[in-house]
Specification:
Elements (H helix, E strand, L loop, with lengths): L12 H26 L5 H18 L8 E3 L4 H7 L6 H29 L2 H6 L2 H13 L2 H8 L5 E2 L2 E2 L3 H21 L2 H5 L1 H23 L10 H6 L16 H5 L8 H33 L4 H24 L3 E3 L1 H10 L4 H14 L3 H9 L2 H23 L7 H15 L4 E3 L2 E3 L1 H15 L9
Length: 454
């Protein structure tokens, strides 16, 4: 892929800030969604801060060679719920999340040491292109349902259901998608580099028009945009907190749980987090194979898989210390790099610093929270689609005239698209990891297929 900005390129400051905002908008919804799902008083702003500082740690370990933003991991939602299980106190639950992230990070460190000692060739043999290609495609395809679900949903909800008519929501989402595609394909240089910002603003504007009409005519079907996040800023009057506020960092609550900590609880947290860390390792590998294809540099060799693992693992620990959520490499970030063809590491660094600063800015957090799901759904149709296509492009290198390759690709695609998950007690192997494991097993089973028919 011909990039406009290579990894080491440094755009002008103003342009870098704009590109960084686009990266933030691409990853923001998912990063903020995890603490919202977990509840228990978790702070979305703190999770955003954790993602920003975790990304800086990741960039430090990868020597500024891997242009990927890391943010809250959905894979750890189950273990994070487990931290609050059994009626434990709020403070102990928060402490459990930090301890769990430390266990997960330790898994990454151990794998990184092994990779450093024996190299990555064993991984390439275990997971060749015929396995990784369709797995990368599944990363995008497995999220298709999320994008389509968001596309039909507005931001105003009653009993957790959108009041906007699905067709109105879809129209807002399709406007977002159309403007994004047009800017990326026909726009001038700047428009080509920030299609998501322009698309989101266009979709937001259309949603605003519908909502204003719906409020004036008292027609719920037209109410796409929720103003609740903005109303909350002035619920107790206008004060400094209306504009700037310190996020509720995880460690601030967790420190109160030290006196309640016991070995049984630590063991239960380890059992919940450690197996998931091995699963997320598979997604880490697939994401880095994907971004390597986009920037045409093998990140598994330079800076090295051991460095990307250390960056991801330590970044997760640091991120959870502040925001409660272990981090992971984001497909949305990779998709943003692919579509905009901007792989500048300085964009990622600025986005990380921006995430940290924005977490203190109440109005911006309110604006992001007010973006209706349908608008983000329109953007995600492109983001997730590009991830899927990146994987399909890898499959082009595979000889599908061989039954072995056909079976491996077929198993991965069907398991992934079908949403196969495996649950063992409190441990759930998610769709992408399940598909990857089955693909590895199929590839090993058929590795000795003869080259010619007998």
């Amino acid at each position: 892929m011909k990039l406009i900005y290579q990894v080491e390129d440094k755009p002008k400051f103003g342009a870098t800030v704009v590109f960084a905002i686009q990266q933030l908008l691409a990853i923001m919804a998912a990063t903020l969604a995890v603490p919202m799902i977990i509840g228990n008083g978790m702070s979305s702003a703190a999770a955003l801060f954790g993602a920003g500082i975790g990304t800086l740690v990741y960039i430090l370990f990868t020597q500024k060679k891997s242009p990927v933003f890391i943010g809250s991991s959905f894979a750890f939602i189950g273990p994070m719920f487990a931290a609050f299980a059994g009626g434990v106190s709020m403070s102990l639950g928060y402490l459990g999340m930090i301890i769990g992230a430390a266990f997960a990070g330790l898994v990454y460190v151990i794998i990184a040491v092994i990779v450093k000692l024996v190299g990555v060739e064993w991984i390439n043999k275990l997971m060749p292109v015929v396995v990784i290609g369709p797995t990368v495609a599944i990363i995008g395809l497995s999220l298709a349902g999320n994008a389509v679900g968001d596309l039909t949903s507005g931001g105003v909800k009653v009993d957790n259901a959108s009041v906007a008519h699905p067709l109105v929501a879809v129209l807002c989402g399709l406007v977002t998608l159309a403007v994004t595609m047009l800017c990326s394909s026909y726009g001038k240089r700047t428009a080509k580099l920030i299609p998501f910002i322009i698309g989101i603003l266009a979709g937001y504007f259309v949603a605003l028009i519908f909502t204003l009409i719906g409020n004036a005519a008292d027609v719920d079907a037209l109410k796409v945009l929720s103003f609740d996040a903005f109303k909350a800023l002035t619920a107790d009057g206008v004060s400094l907190k209306t504009f700037v506020s310190v996020p509720d960092f995880t460690f601030m609550t967790a420190k109160d749980g030290l006196g309640e900590l016991n070995g049984s609880y630590v063991t239960s947290i380890a059992v919940a987090y450690v197996p998931v860390a091995f699963v997320v390792f598979a997604e880490h590998l697939a994401d880095h194979k994907n971004i390597s294809t986009i920037i045409e540099r093998d990140l598994l060799k330079e800076p090295g898989l051991h460095r990307t693992l250390l960056g991801d693992g330590v970044g997760s620990i640091v991120g959870a210390f502040f925001g409660g959520c272990p981090n992971t490499t984001y497909g949305e970030s990779v998709g943003c790099v692919a579509i905009t063809r901007n792989a500048s590491i300085y964009t990622i660094i600025t986005a990380a610093i921006g995430a940290i600063l924005i977490s203190f800015l109440s109005p911006f957090i309110a604006f992001v929270n007010s973006i209706p799901p349908c608008v983000m759904g329109g953007v995600c149709m492109a983001l997730y689609g590009f991830i899927a296509v990146s994987g399909l492009k890898m499959i082009q290198q595979v000889d599908l005239n061989k039954n072995k390759n056909l079976f491996v690709v077929s198993v991965i695609l069907i398991a992934g698209i079908g949403g196969l998950e495996l649950t063992f007690g409190q441990v759930t192997i998610r769709t992408v990891a399940t598909a990857l494991i089955l693909g590895i097993l199929a590839n090993l089973m058929l590795k000795n297929e003869p080259d010619t028919e007998e």
